[in-house]
Amino acid sequence: MPKLKFYTGEDLLKIPNTGFGPFSADSVLHLGVTSGCRVKSGKESVIHRRWLRTSLNLLDIVGSMIAGNLIHFLWRKLLLHSLFWFLVLGFFSYFLDTAGENLLYSGTFAIFLLPVTMGTTYTTIYYLLPGFLLKKKYLLFSLYGFYTLVLSAFAIVLSIFYGLVFILNMDYHGMPAAGRSLWSMMVLVYLVVVLVSAFTLLKQNYSSIAENRALENKFLEAQLKLKEQELHYLKLQVHPHFLFNTLNTLYGHALKKSEETPHMILKLSNLLDYLLYQADKPLVSLSSEIEHIKDYIDLEQMRFRNNLDVELDLPPATENIVIAPMLLLPFVENVFKHGQPVDGKLKIFICLQADEEQLNFLIRNTVKNDQERETQSGLGLKNLKKRLQLLYPDRHSFSAEKSGNSFEARLSLIHSKDYRHG
Question: Which residue has the higher pLDDT, 297 or 14?
Fold first, then answer.
């Protein structure tokens, strides 16, 4: 437990100032109480000197950062606004002295118009626009806008009058030519108000577009994450019954001490590696998908023995074509799950055609005439349809139908966007 040292109020006052001003004994004592330290009554108090210094230094740093940022923001804002109104004052002076009569009088006269212009402008952009127009309160905006117009017009008249009295000593003929027309002065003031308001609306519109894009990006990211989770969930449902059947077959071979057992384990290992690891990739080569389909068929061949007849029509070279992983394997899995032998044999025909743009896949298997149409509504095909809609929206066509003793499924999709150039 750390040792605590006793300090008197006079000792605490000797602590170097950290920017918060001199401390009294009472203020330091209060700091010790609020921080949870145990305090003795009288002049002496118990407090940890190092903790006090660290705390005050941190407060000093945080306070300095906040104050510095606030001062920088206000100074930048004030500087930009001052520069803008200085340019407006120059514009007013130039406009009032178009005849080159007296720039000094015109500049001084313009100073009387500047407060009216500033007040009308700030009222419009900080009150009327955000409070009513942008909130689509058009009736209130029109009403308060009319009030602002009337009050600003009255203020313009007063500005002209005071300029005539205090600058020209009621010498109307000495007034700048443009200043003798009330309409010209109003146009001058309201031109600035309209331009600043238009700039504010454009800025607000740009900010709204940027915010909408940010929201759209967040929404798309959320959709993408949801899509990835759904795809992952669908992948997990693809192969449980296959593993169960294969392990049962492997168990039977192991009991018989069959020489095919090591070969079967190797095939299963390669297939599991594809199902568990390669399937997490966004794309795989078509040749990899074909090789694992062959491994799958080899494993099922060991289970069915002579009761299986598989005919394959596969393209020789597909290295440069990439597709989503486990896109075709569920078709083969569905065949072995729902297919039934006819005349003692389960016959399967698989045909695949692929080029740089399109892929066409056909798979056909035998079923019994009295078999229900579960092959078309099985979980595997439902999951496959969902995956196709997520991975290849508007880029695929899928059909499945039963005719007599045959069930056939077809898939056509455009994969050109995924084509890998060699």
Answer: 297
304 Cβ contact list (under 8 Å, min separation 6):
346
Angle between helices 138-166 and 103-123 (to 10 degrees): 160
**Does residue 237 fall inside a structural domain?**
no
Cα four-point dihedral sign 267, 270, 271, 272: positive
Q: 213-222, 223-232, 248-257, 383-392: which range is least confident on average? A: 223-232
Host domain of residue 164: 97-231
413 and 341 together in one domain: yes
Q: What is the pLDDT of residue 226?
A: 67
**Does 83 map to a domain?**
no
Measure the CA–CA gap between 260 and 357, rounded to whole angstroms. 40
For residues 294 and 401, state if they share a domain. yes
Q: Which residues of 287-321 are buried (b: 16+ CB within 10 A; e: fewer)?
A: bbbbebbebbbebbebbbeeebebeeeeeeebeeb
Does the pTM surpass 0.70? The reply is no
Interval 324-348 mean pLDDT: 86
Measured on CA atoms in the order 105, 106, 107, 113, is the torsion positive or negative? positive
Alpha carbon distance 256, 254 (integer Å): 5
pLDDT digits (tens, 9 = 90+) for 254-295: 887 777 788 888 888 887 787 777 767 888 888 888 988 888
Residue 390 CB neighbours (<10 A): 15
Q: Which residues touch 150 (CB under 8 Å, ≥6 apart)?
A: none
Instruction: Work out the average pLDDT over 409-413.
Output: 92
